[in-house]
Amino acid sequence: MKKLITTLQNIWKIKELRNRILFTLGMLFVFRFGSYIVLPGVIPEVLDNATQNNNSPNDLLGLINVFTGGAFNNAAIFALGIMPYITASIIIQLLGFAVPYFQRLQQKEGESGRKKLNQITRLLTVAITLVQGGGYLTYINSLGAVDPTIPLSIFWISNIIILSTGTVFSMWLGERITDRGIGNGISLLITIGIIATLPQALVFEFQSQLENNGLIIFVLEMAALFGIVMATVLIVQGVRRIPIQFAKRMVGRGSNQMPAQGARDYIPLKVNASGVMPIIFAQALMFLPATVAQFFAGEGSDLATSPVLRALNDFTSAPYNIIYFILVVLFTYVYTALLVNPQQYAEYLKRQNAFIPGIKPGKPTADFIDAVTTRITLPGSIFLGIISILPAFAAGFGVNIAFAMFFGGTSLLILVAVVLDTLQQIESHLLMRRYDGLVKSGKIQGRSRMQGIGANM
């Protein structure tokens, strides 16, 4: 505890770090405040009654509501939050793998290419927001939560402008946090939305266990959650270091020439290079059966009452979790193959006059890196698959659904990754001013300083 208090005092002593943290907290407060300002023309009481049991954290609308910190169900001006920007970023990233123009912007045109991509992403965000905003307002109208005294056309036009402005403003807040605050602004906005639902879910779980004389069970649940978080940290931070060596070269002139010792370094290949993307893609596919069931439900079709569809719409069922696990593993391999380019590593080593000891330059080096990547992706993909289905196991053991979602899945991975990145930036400020870091010894592995040629590629 004394170490923690000393660290907090050191953080407060650094004026720049203190101002950045306060600025970040202020921007996050503005974002959360906007999550409670209801769109004009919406009747909050009717909306609350309609959405109370209309979606759960397992379906698409419930997931969006979790990421927006409840703003989606509140019909707030930030109802769409930063999600259209995330969607646009994913689209641009995928285009970078397939379209030569975007590949050139990402890899060869440096800072000017990144600025051009950011501009395209912003424009695509506005377009996506207009489409999603129209669908969201139609959804609100279908719930009967629109004031009947307001013409529908005026409600639709005015609020779609407000929703678009809210998303653009959220994007601006994220960029300001990145520039003048601490941590990645966009990621922090998503994280604060996820964390916003945690206290209520935790209190509800505690009260539920207390009423059933299950205080020991609640303690065991917290211990299990702590263990899962620690395991997630290990996988997120885990890297496989491939040692490399730079060729010896002559230093000096004339009779003073002498061979310089070959410098050693390594290529850090992450065990989980794909991050949270495989879970997002797999979850999107798992939403399709529910969408089909809802589409046919109003027509009295047998398809809507099919046992298969009912099982695929129940995230605690065995078929759902088996298919979900397999999809996560497959998408992990696919996304890792898109992100990690062994040929690019081999070319970079050749240009830098470096080599992997015992491996010939060129194609043998690319094949070796590809083989290592494939081997380390297996445990990473299995772990992601297990993380994705852990909420179902937690719910099966009696944990309420809202709290069970924090035992794994997208929410847990995002929380861990963002917290680690933010702590790394705080530790960097402390170490630059010769203060102790956030941990007692060492640094936050894989975060505190970019080592290896992976940082240069």
UniProtKB/TrEMBL annotation:
It is found in: Cell membrane; Membrane. Pfam families: SecY. It is a multi-pass membrane protein. Keywords: Cell membrane, Membrane, Protein transport, Translocation, Transmembrane, Transmembrane helix, Transport. Signal peptide: none annotated. GO terms for cellular component: plasma membrane. InterPro entries: SecY, SecY/SEC61-alpha, SecY_CS, SecY_dom_sf. The chain crosses the membrane at residues 21-39, 75-102, 123-142, 154-173, 185-203, 215-239, 276-297, 322-341, 376-395, 401-423. It comes from the Bacteria. One of its GO terms (biological process) is intracellular protein transmembrane transport. The central subunit of the protein translocation channel SecYEG. Consists of two halves formed by TMs 1-5 and 6-10. These two domains form a lateral gate at the front which open onto the bilayer between TMs 2 and 7, and are clamped together by SecE at the back. The channel is closed by both a pore ring composed of hydrophobic SecY resides and a short helix (helix 2A) on the extracellular side of the membrane which forms a plug. The plug probably moves laterally to allow the channel to open. The ring and the pore may move independently. Belongs to the SecY/SEC61-alpha family. Component of the Sec protein translocase complex. Heterotrimer consisting of SecY, SecE and SecG subunits. The heterotrimers can form oligomers, although 1 heterotrimer is thought to be able to translocate proteins. Interacts with the ribosome. Interacts with SecDF, and other proteins may be involved. Interacts with SecA. This is Protein translocase subunit SecY.
